């Protein structure tokens, strides 16, 4: 194969940027933004720019099917037939003995629509169970429920062009600068162009998004409902509502108005912990703007009041008629690249295909007829949503689970429960592109999936736009596309459960799966009867609805004020504010917030293999307000134990004025491949929203205390294959008081560990894995009495690796200085042995890379700002922030902070 460029879509966030994948001789060599794609017009963010290395790299890939020959035996390589037959035998046997609801499927918003469609058909049409749920339950289900309750159907009414025409933008629980960067670029441009655009950010943290706002409402976690009701209160009493719109197009306002009476700005100010005047200002801006747009994400959805938060925000739009016009409307940002596609195919425990309902017998009949299965095959019993599914597994009620394209042993709340579920299950099948995730450890059968860039299909982005994903390279080893795996298993299972039934899983290519799916949408609100692969090929990505006869999709919905309810009217909902599920108690005084970093993606199975994606946030940290830290005698870099009623984990502390007192924040990404624990979800709660069943991942009551682990290990090794070294180290991580791995450079793996007392046994295992043996090029210093061991490896004049173990502060600092030498890769000055002589007594702090594209670090930026450069001069001097722009918000924040300091 010669050099080619393949048009496709980014596999990370829900912005759904178009990409052009360069490949050569069957290998992906680079990725650039697609100038023709209407989501990004050629732009990419820091994650998108690294796609070739992160998502198309070959380290850690699952290459062959594997299976355990007996329950506790290690898995061994098997052929596809053996693996799929065994899986079908076991599933069929369990269904026969215990009924269809004794098995379950746990899928993902990162599957392609075609894959998703097949798994839904397999669960509901072959097994006859609604036990298919997905990680979208942890992500979008409150938004889905909110839209359905308010408008009668799922899906945002808005489109990306609204970003450019909004006069007031309300960000609620969205850190868009990090999580949807390319859309944030569009907003920044719009504000620069129009000037008079106002941004309001509702977030308990002062994020980079919040720092750019005209008004930041730093509310107490979980109090959004009270805030939105108070804004409504002000709008009503100041006459800023649109009575004509309310009368013509809505229902239920009287009850809402009665309830809003109690939510005065003063009352809400008490609950939310913000000034009443700020609430009034927010309401004024929202109500008086010619076009108000709200952008919301996990800060609303991941809550025990997630649906109520969504509905309270939608109330504001309906009451002011801020919907169905350019620049106006409630815009739920989807997280995963195909969270929307999953909703369209109905691949959840609580819905049927194309926005149909499980409880409706006509809907079940329509779907059964389309699939050509008996009408009573589709179960009227709702399936188990994610958390309930794992609880049922832990109890033994569900006996087998098929996990595809998600890593629940890391991403589910209350990991102790998730692990118990996966241990108790009779059969765990894991279908993943990577072999070494926290969940693959539990797999009885591991099926290697083709990854992004190796398969064909479609995804739908946040603005309902369907784009093609195309194959640019063949999958490695024996990995196969998810759709192939689904069909192969479905046929085998159908042959066992329904012998003689026609084969319903025989598709010549992905376009035929898409055609079958769109057939089910005809006549529904999301009708895409007019869309097929040919149109996507010739006319490019399209928004739904796009019924037959139309040439292009519909940008905005509900423009005529007619909603998808039976009477065409939207519904107001009056739901009172309730505090989060976890009570703050004397023993658990802090509120733990979890969320995203700029350059990592979820469980890091892809981004965690690229050193440059670590540079922005190199190591895990718990962020805490300096006053809270001071009160507990905690300092930057101290190891702390974060414990809830459910579990605990250890990580370094970072004081951070961006946190509100009483709240702490940890990134969700770190897990057992990098840590001695599963990370933040060791502590989170499995309490769910009663309407959407989405868990409250954004709030847990925790205790934070110093972890007394004085024995410290620092190890860093330069090598050709850090991922291979990492896989040798991960088995050791769980067995020590603290451990964290990161990539300090593309060829340097860094490990920090700690324990209460020296652990010679553990150290021996580590030295084994590092292969750091004394010899001509490895010097050693040891002082067994003090439990100190140091080894330094050389390659020619340069350092090649180091290990420092001991308890003294001076040894630690010496280790950090040597680490800096290793990273700098300068020739060593003086005698080799002097590496062990006590150096200057100063602590070195590793610089953090702020701009990934130009590799400009924080130190250089602060230096220039201190010299008096402004933001534009800074960018010009250093080049930072001039390529993808992902660091732009942070540069602005650093410049602003510098200005404040000097003022
Ligand atoms: N870099 C990166 N981008 C991503 C992802 C990724 O892993 N990495 N994942 C994608 C996915 S699947 C998703 S779902 C999205 C998530 O995108 P976002 O929801 O924007 O990201 P989060 O950091 O999870 O949470 C957003 C904010 O909610 C705030 N918050 C916490 N509690 C509350 C509350 O009670 N009220 C309010 N108003 N705010 C609160 C947090 O402080 C946080 O800043 O990101 C997508 N994009
Ligand atoms: N504490 C806390 N927990 C959270 C959240 C939070 O904010 N805080 N957010 C929640 C949210 S919004 C989400 S969306 C979830 C995400 O949580 P997960 O779904 O667990 O996230 P990923 O790590 O993206 O998992 C995707 C898996 O699919 C694999 N994979 C990649 N490509 C393919 C492919 O083409 N085929 C197959 N079969 N496998 C593939 C990857 O290797 C990876 O193991 O986390 C949730 N958990
Ligand atoms: S904004 Fe999202 S879709 Fe676009 S390049 Fe970045 S991660 Fe990919
Ligand atoms: Mo998500």
Structure write-up:
The chain starts with a strand and ends with a helix. The strands form 8 sheets. A 7-stranded mixed β-sheet has the order 5-4-16-15-14-6-7, sandwiched between helices. The chain has a 6-stranded mixed barrel with strand order 21-25-22-24-23-26. It is globular, with a radius of gyration of 27 Å. The chain has 31 helices and 34 strands. The protein has 5 domains: 51 residues, Phosphorylase Kinase, domain 1 (2-Layer Sandwich), CATH 3.30.200.210; 210 residues, Rossmann fold; 192 residues, Dimethylsulfoxide Reductase, domain 2; 139 residues, no CATH class; 54 residues, BFD-like [2Fe-2S]-binding domain (Arc Repressor Mutant, subunit A, Orthogonal Bundle). The model has no long low-confidence stretch (mean pLDDT 95). Helix 10 packs antiparallel against helix 13, helix 13 packs across helix 14 and helix 29 runs parallel beside helix 31. The site of molybdenum atom has 3 residues, from loops.
List the helices and strands and how they pair.
Blueprint: E1 4-9, E2 18-24, E3 27-33, H1 46-49, H2 51-54, E4 66-67, E5 76-77, H3 80-98, E6 103-107, H4 113-127, E7 132-134, H5 141-151, H6 161-165, E8 168-172, H7 176-179, H8 181-194, E9 198-202, H9 208-211, E10 215-217, H10 224-237, H11 243-249, E11 250-251, H12 253-260, H13 265-272, H14 276-288, E12 292-296, H15 298-301, H16 306-320, E13 329-332, H17 339-345, H18 361-371, H19 386-395, E14 400-404, H20 408-411, H21 415-424, E15 427-432, E16 445-448, E17 457-460, E18 465-469, H22 482-497, H23 510-521, H24 533-539, E19 542-543, E20 570-571, E21 590-595, E22 622-624, H25 626-631, E23 639-643, E24 648-655, E25 663-667, E26 700-706, E27 711-718, H26 722-733, E28 738-745, E29 748-755, H27 760-770, E30 778-783, E31 788-795, E32 798-806, H28 809-824, E33 849-851, E34 856-857, H29 858-866, H30 871-878, H31 888-902
Parallel strand pairs: 6-7, 6-14, 8-9, 8-12, 9-10, 11-20, 12-13, 14-15, 15-16, 21-25, 22-24
Antiparallel strand pairs: 1-2, 2-3, 4-5, 4-16, 17-18, 18-19, 21-26, 22-25, 23-24, 23-26, 27-29, 27-32, 28-29, 30-31, 31-32, 33-34
Helix pairs in contact: 3-22, 4-17, 4-22, 4-23, 5-16, 10-13, 10-14, 10-16, 13-14, 19-21, 26-27, 29-30, 29-31
The structure holds ligand MGD (2 copies), iron/sulfur cluster (SF4) and molybdenum atom.
